[in-house]
Structure formats: structure tokens, C-alpha cells
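Practice problem: predict the structure.
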Amino acid sequence: MKIAYLQSKPERSCMLFNSSASRRVELYVHSNLDAESYTLICLAGANEQFERQRCMGPFASSDLAKGAMNALISSLQNEGFELIRGVSIWELAAADLARKVRTERDKHPVDTGFVPLGIVPERP
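Answer:
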């Protein structure tokens, strides 16, 4: 499958709607509050209540997260969804999900420093 990216960068959130199936998808890019990474959150469902949620990331920059969001938007548009302007109805749920991702991530810190084999780094 070839992914066609949109020409313009989306905002930090967008909404898509499929009128024939009455389905709604909302996409959000949230900062992980460490100023280094971002999470892409996707909520989907019918009209008032979302039924599915997905998180992607962490992404190293907001541009990378927006690029992934671009790819999702393009794919959804190929499936019959239309980009709409309007009021986001699941924004609070997305913010809560982003908070849960951050707290889980903070419980399990990862040290990504490289240590060559056989060389023990000096501790300050």
C-alpha cells in the first residue's frame, strides 16, 4: 500500500466524518510534557461516544507526529471520510488518555545512553 501524504501540515487536532456510515474519527497530537516527545491519539466511534482508541508514539518531534497524522488522514480520506471543521467532542477524553500515557511512561524510565562493551562509564 502506498501512503500519500497531504501537502499541508495539519493542526494539532483534526476531525473526519463519514456521512454514509455515520462514523467519526478525531486525531490529536499531545506533548508528553518532557519537551522531547509527542503522542498521536486516535479516537473513533459513532456520533456521541467513541468506541475505539489508539495511541501511537512516542515521536521525537511534533513534525514527526503530524506526519503520521497526515498519513492517517490521507488513508481515511481514501476510505470515504471527509475532513470537517467544527467542535471537537472527544478532546477531553484525548487529554485524559494522553495523561494516562504520560503517567505510565514516567513509572518506567528508560536510559537510552550507549555504553560500549567492556567499558564501564564513570559516574559523576
